[in-house]
Amino acid sequence: MTRLTTTLTLSLVLAIAAPAAFAQQETAEGSEEALEIEEIVVTATFRGDELYQVPSSIGVVPAEAIARRGATHLEEILNMIPNLNYAKGSSRARFLQIRGIGERGQFSEPLNASVGLIVDGVDLSGIGTVAMLFDVEQVEVLRGPQGTRYGANALAGLVNVVTRAPTDVSEGELELFAGNYGAFGAGAAVSGPLAENARGRLAARVDRANGFIENDFLGVDDTDSTDEKLLRGRLSWDAGESATVDLSAGYIDADNGYDAFSLDNIRTTLADEPGHDRQETLYGSAAVRWHDNPAFAVEANLGVAASDMAYGYDADWVYVGFHPWGYSGTDDYLRDRNTVTAEVRLVSREGEELVGGRTAWTVGAYTLRQDVALTRQSTFIDSDFTSDYGIDRFAVFGQTETSLDPSSTLTVGLRLERHSASYDDSAGVSSAPEDSLVGGRVSFDRAVAPGVVGYGSVSRGYKAGGFNIDGSLRADLREYDPEVLWNFEAGLKLRTADGRVNFRGSVFHMRRDDVQIDSSIVIFHDDGTTEFIDFVGNAAQGTNSGAELDVEFTPTDAVSLYARVGLLRSEYEDYINGEGMDLDGRQQAHAPDYQFSVGADFAFGEGYFAGLEMDGRDGFYFSDSHSERSNPYALLNASIGYRGRDWSVTAWARNLANEDYFVRGFFFGNDPRDGYTDRGFTQLGEPRRIGITASRTW
Fold first, then answer.
1. What residues are paired with 14 via a beta bridge?
2. Model-level pTM?
3. What's the CATH code of the domain at 160?
4. Residue 170 CB neighbours (<10 A)
């Protein structure tokens, strides 16, 4: 705990000291050559805005930081973003939480995501296994409700994965990596002109590893393995002088094992029928921009995705005979999910604003259709359980940005959405709820000095209601209502003229009404079997308050320091869960009080570089149905390498000190050695990972 406190203190000192360095940098004229300032464009906004001009708390992880960490999947960089957490219970982190809000798992029940996941304009929320990071330009994390821009799938925020765009000149990359636990990977990308007005890009990648589990019963070390393949293409076409067309398509095939839990909470298991976590996704998107009209541009976006998912596990975690009463079996969930989204926007052109040329505007309409077919195959049910779940959403939205004076802008947005769902299953359960939902945002930002922008905002997000379908669940737990989230936020963004100090800070207070909570209960049946039921319910209210700081300081061309800190205080109000626990005033699940990522990058010699960073977070509750908690932890990461004109080699390490930490937890009785006494069971996070990545570009 002492090391965590020290590290957090250092990060806060850096966060406070960096703005103070602003004045020193501004007055030190001619003392250092100014850095080349690279603008970071956030593509998840309506217009694609520069990061320091967006009046909102946004974290961006660029390609350089992804490479420095040796990351191949989204979950391997999530610790870098303050107030972003995740839950596993699978081979990859599918479910995310922003500012303490988000789902943590799914079994038979239908689910609406609180945190959106977008890849190249395609909605892949809730199926994060697809988020491979090869040939990715940046990952954007929008914290807080995105009620105007994205609606019901972004109650708490959004993660937007932006792949690299086609280029006007021919280029390519070949990357190879190898690491411990039998890990190896290879990827290649090519890009360039296809015709006079067309450009294309193609990327392919394969990654494999044995995983971090040894199965002593089977005598193998690959029952928790990963085997992931990626093929992605993009095409940009200038269709005449007034139109552009951008097409993208991707195919992801993950054939992963799942053997993560043991009765002793260690990396050695005894399962005789290890599980699996497979996902095959084919997706595509089309974005057309027509700008022939002098007053506005027309932007149309279409996204489609088809996913086949198979998730299963050894339900007893051990081999036949370990349980004296013969308990043994498997549980498998097979899902086919198809999603289609379409959006049309009219966006005012520069010079054609309203109200005397001071108000830019956007209006549009959005629709989503999603169908999910589930087949559950389990040893503990007489026949396969099947269900069909469909969602229809239609929304209209608008936003204005009014220049009140040369330094101030008022932004007002509104979104009206109609959500309809239908559900039928083989147990005879059916439901067809409908909700009318309203979201929006009002923000004010002002340039208070050169390079300094302050903002304040009030936003409203929403999430549709739903229903629980398990046959053994009590009638009063069957349905739950929509959730509404009010977010009050103020922030400051600062960047010195020489680019050596960058500071983004925000404070927020979020008010949650009819909080949707993922909870669980255990039911003991008369025949001696035990049923573990995951369900969603409503709490009365909840609050989530905190702050986010993101600081980068480059004192010399050879040294770069950074600190990212998230502070969070969350609690429920007047809530008693399904098991009768009074949670009034208790911290919400997967909502640590603090998170941080601090580090330094060094350049020395001709092309040599090194980096050292530490990620950490406070302990948190695994669930709202029990009191099991994770421990606080801090993970040390390092990298060193050489970068030549067209090639590079990087040696990297994640969790260098090999710290044990937890990424999922449950509480129930499953061990005959202690008489099936209820206790905690945990899934361990990634142990020490070391590897070497080599790349060649042309």
1. none
2. 0.92
3. 2.40.170.20
4. 11
